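Recall the central idea of this unit: under ordinary conditions, the amino acid sequence of a chain determines the structure it adopts. In this exercise we apply that idea directly, starting from the sequence alone.
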Amino acid sequence: MEQPLLGGPPGDWWGAPPGGRWWYRVLRSWLPVLSWLPRYSLSALRMDVVAGLTVGLTAVPQALAYAEVAGLPVQYGLYSAFMGGFIYPLLGTSKDLTLGPTAIMSLLCASVVGGQPGRAVLLSLLCGAVQTAMGLLRLGFLLDFVSYPVIKGFTCAAAVTIGFGQIKNLLGLRGVPQTFYLEVYYTFYRLPEARPGDALLGLLCLALLLTLQWMKSSLSPRNQSHEGPRNQSHEGPRNQSHEGPRNQSHEGPRTEGGPWGSRAARRFVCGAATVRNAVVVLAASGLAAAFLTSGFPVFTVTGKTAQGLPAFRPPPTSETSANGTVISFLEIVKGFGGGLAVIPFMGVLESIAIAKAFASQNDYRVDASQELLAIGLTNIMGSFVSAYPVTGSFGRTAVNSQSGVCTPAGGIMNSAVVLLSLAFLMPAFCYIPKASLAAVIICAVAPMVDYGVVAELWCVRTSPPRSVVLDFLHVSSIDSTVLSELRALLRLFRLRGASLLLSRVQPSVLDVLLAADLPGLRLTNDLSAALQGHIDELSWTGAQGC
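Accordingly, the structure predicted from this sequence is:
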């Protein structure tokens, strides 16, 4: 990792000089755990344990729900949720990222394997092999060429598809096909056939999740931090010096006790809201179990599930159809079609985008190629425990970051929670209502539908290009070929009514450009102003100081 997660100087922890121990620096580039493990502290362990437990309580119900999206038995969601917590701390470069089943990967998996668990596990192995090969070849830079409209369009479309696909489970509808346009038609066609118990429970779970989410955003300490420090810094000393004794005698006990109770209540509500998925699923399961044991099957539940930990074994490379025909490995791979290229690529794209977003927020850097390697090996090893393809989860990563995680070791505790659920809680999972899982999925994918980006992309498409800025900071020399191409490029920009700016040009390059007397050439030293579109304020005379 290019910056240690736990702080400290970026040099070797053994105190080696910059030119020494080259073998250790190479090893650390492939095993980022060596960057933070030697400085691991007890306080970091405490924060990682708390964050891991919090994420684990969020991951278990989401994993069960996403298995439904993938068309697989619910235990396969848990099988896919724990391997990343053991592999990623060794190879990953983001302290916040959590790997596991996600809505988009589950949807893609369902479209390729058609609800066949054996093929889903084999797909994980093949996806991991592709991603690992990309990581070993250091091809992470290729992801920078995927455009923003493509990513947003795919994400919004996937969110709509996944969210609408859960309405049938939310309302207890049956006989609804999987194809999206048929799903839309038959969902409305069979709306009068909705089961009252499922519909009522699903809507209640949805309302409770939204309420807890709103309470968390309203009572978050981050929202309270804007007023607290300001009032303390500007008014605290004045009140103490002029009115301290009076306030202490008349209002001391009340003001001292009131905020304490308020803080405790706020922490309790925020804690419950953070693990709201687990709270809602547990409450719904308890209600469903009470009705079932009383002889009233009011709700549609997941039913009996496989118990215990998955066996560690290689994924199946062939399968036998119902009529006894053996389907070979090559035939299975041929059946995957283009999904064998799309799923690995979308997995790393989603994961690296999340990792970079939280790295920018928390002031550290990630290595895209190393992330490819971490995700790939997670999928390869996951295929040996019956997992389907996984990637980074935005929701669980956000919970991880907000819980104060210090290192990737928080994922180990997350995986421990999942393993304990597999070992001891699987018999209770048969009482989980499908309506509650549908509510969890709908709330998870709803933020992915960005309505504002549609107007933004439309304006970009209809607006003519205004300017292009070329940063010449790292260009030390140019030749006649570059000058010829630059002259043609400037002419093309003038014909299209756009502007081309050269920013932060080195003195040696500037002399060559001025001697060439290129028509329409504009220079500036202020890159930020150029990127913000203040081109009219930049003139040739003002750029002579480049």
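The first strand starts at residue 99 and ends at 100.
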